Amino acid sequence: MKKLTVTTLFLLSTLCSAPLLANQNTSNTGGFTGPGAAAPGTQNLNSVRGILNSGRSVEEMQVTLTGKITQSLGGEKYMFSDGTAEIVVEIDQDDWYGLKTTPETLVIINAEVDHDAGRPTLDVQRILAK
Fold first, then answer.
1. pLDDT tens string 69-92
2. Are strands 86-91 and 106-116 parallel, antiparallel or unpaired?
3. Does the domain made of 48-129 have the CATH classification 2.40.50.200?
């Protein structure tokens, strides 16, 4: 009988304390996650400058940037600027979806960070006029 009472008390105390322990947060990890916010420990990938300064740790990360295509570099490579810096972007012919741009056209690009000869580049999956 004594064993049953001790076991019952142990189970009840465990069940009652589990929800309290689950809600305890011993670290200070709060904050905002969403557009414009860099995850803790990562670089800000909301600008060309941030991507250029980030190194290889951001390889294959998805980014969305607003800026202008300033010139063609031949083939499917172009120079893109968001006002903070310039970066080479690759836009496959079928990703243009008929969009025609000039160096004055403000565009939004969705791209994956890549590296070409050690420098970050962007592989554009979608381009839209703003």
1. 999 999 999 999 999 999 999 999
2. unpaired
3. yes
